[in-house]
Amino acid sequence: MAEAQVLHTTAGDFPLHESWLRLAGHEWRVLHTGVVLTHDDEQQFLRELRDRLPYGVALWPAAIALAHEVAARAEAFRGKRVLELGAGTGLPGIVAASLGARVVQTDRHEMPMSVCRRNGQLNGARSIEYRLADWAEWDDDGRYDFILGSDILYGETMQPFLRRIFERNLAPGGRVLLSDPFRGVSIRLLEALDAEGWQVGITRWNLGEDASPRPIGVFELAPG
User: Fold this and answer.
1) 8 Å CB contact between 62 and 125
2) Considering the entire predicted model, what is its pTM?
3) Sign (positive/negative) of CA torsion 28, 215, 210, 24?
4) Residue at 29 is within a domain
5) In a domain, 156, yes or no
6) Are the C-beta atoms of 34 and 11 separated by less than 8 Å?
7) Which CATH number characterizes residue 211's domain?
8) Which of 169, 39, 30, 46 is nearest to 88 (CA)?
9) Which of 59, 128, 64 is nearest to 100 (CA)?
10) Per the domain annotation, does 20 fall within a domain?
């Protein structure tokens, strides 16, 4: 029997669960502290764990939706340079790497970054570089064909830093793919970008098998 994996933190030890994702003939395994899928799951996480764990150690629906989107565009990612912001458990970037992309996964916190590394190793993703990075102190001058982000727009004070990263690091002809559960603060930013000349498209994903699945938008951004 495989040894149970544990996340050791100053707030205590948390068991790491494993989920499997099967897409486009591939299979990925993801370690996480729990799946946050429904609104009730989200409220429970915020109520019980937000002061003990970073958001990124849970598996959020936006990451699952973005992984689906990446897998659906498999040929577009082959051989491309990809930057994942706020990678957390790292699922979308791992899918991109498995499809032949060269990926840089970033997160501000070491704890989710450590889980992200474990997941990369678990899936045999060798073309991933891991970096601790703060959006407010960003020093990467690289250019990327795709910039990925799963549910990263909720902090309004951080949005100006994200916009600078999009403008600074997106390669000519590149695309930003952002997944979001239609949070009001996120939609306002996307509307502002659209008004400023960015091309903004959307693919809608519904996650969950109950009578009221969670809608997630994957927004594709390109400079005007």
Assistant:
1) no
2) 0.94
3) negative
4) no
5) yes
6) no
7) 3.40.50.150
8) 30
9) 128
10) no
Q: Which of 72, 74, 69, 67 is nearest to 93 (CA)?
A: 67
Q: Classify residue 32: in a domain, yes or no.
A: no
Closest CA to 55 of 181, 170, 177: 181
- Residue 89 lies in domain: 60-222
- Pairing type for strands 214-222 and 170-180 reads antiparallel
**Average pLDDT value for the chain:** 92
Of 35 and 128, the one with more pLDDT: 128
| 173-192 residue pLDDT tens | 999 999 999 999 999 999 99
Q: Count structural domains, the chain.
A: 1
Nearest to 19 by CA among 103, 89, 112: 89
Three-class SS of residue 55?
helix
Contacts of 192 (CB under 8 A, 6+ apart): none
Total count of residues recorded for the chain? 224
In the structure, what pLDDT confidence band is assigned to residue 10 with cuts at 50, 70 and 90? low
